[in-house]
Target: RBM44 protein
Amino acid sequence: TSISSFTYPSGVFVSPYALNLSSFNKLIRRLQDRHPEVSRDKIMEALHEVRKNNKGVLNGLAIRSIEEKTSAIL
Model:
């Protein structure tokens, strides 16, 4: 499994270690399955928005909650 990270045009780096790696990969896969028309980059941008809206962290949010909040943005 490859490790994916993303740097936004603004220079903000998003590490997969914001969640543990297996949870991060599972979340990305679930979002890609749920929104096949949306690019991975757009999914990452939506995840960043969820993190920003949660005081800059994803810790403390259940994976299901992150998925729902991200889907609402997408």
